[in-house]
Amino acid sequence: MEPYRLRVPGRIEELVRSLHPELKRKVRAGLDLIRTDPEVGKELRDELAGLRSLRVGRLRIVYRVAARRLIDLSPSARAGPSTRRRFDYSGGREGGPRGRAPLSSVSTCSIQ
C-alpha cells in the first residue's frame, strides 16, 4: 500500500532543516512512521479532538489525517508549557484550536 503524503508548510520545512542532525533524523523517522501508519499517534481529546500526537524525543508532532491519504502538519511550531517544541495543526476551522489561523496555502512536499 502506498504511504500517505505529508502536507508541510514552508516554515516547518525550515524548522526541521535547522534542527541538530540527530534530532532531525528522529523527526524524519517519526514522519515516516506517521506516513506508513497514521494511527501510530495518540488520539487527542477535547478541543483537540480529531488530531493525533506522536512523541519524538522531546518533540511532539501533532497532525490530522485528511482525506485522500493526506496528513496535515501545522504552519507553526511553538514552545509548550515545559519548553517542548511542537508541530501543531491548526484544525482547519476558523480560528483553530487556541486561536491559530487555519491552514491556507500549503504544499505537499518532502522534508530533506
Which labels suit this protein?
112 residues; alpha/beta; YaeB-like fold; 7 strands; 22% helix; disordered C terminus
Distance between the termini: 23 Å
**Alpha carbon gyration radius:** 13 Å
- CATH top-level class: Alpha Beta
CATH-assigned fold name: YaeB-like fold
Q: What is the strand content? A: 25-35%
Shape: globular
**Nearest-integer average pLDDT:** 75
- Based on secondary structure, the structural category is alpha/beta
Question: Got a strand count?
Answer: 7
The CATH superfamily label reads RelE-like
Q: How many strands, which pairing sense, and closed or not: the largest β-sheet?
A: 7 strands, mixed
What does this structure look like?
The chain is an alpha/beta fold. It has helices at about 10-20, 20-35, and strands spanning about 5, 40-45, 50-55, 60-65, 70-75, 75-80, 85-90. The longest helix has 16 residues, at about 20-35.
Task: Sum this structure up briefly.
With 112 residues, this protein is an alpha/beta fold. The chain has a single domain, classed as RelE-like (YaeB-like fold, 2-Layer Sandwich).
Write the layout of secondary structure elements.
Blueprint: E1 5-7, H1 10-18, H2 21-36, E2 42-43, E3 52-56, E4 59-66, E5 70-73, E6 76-79, E7 85-88
Parallel strand pairs: 1-5, 4-7
Antiparallel strand pairs: 2-3, 3-4, 4-5, 6-7
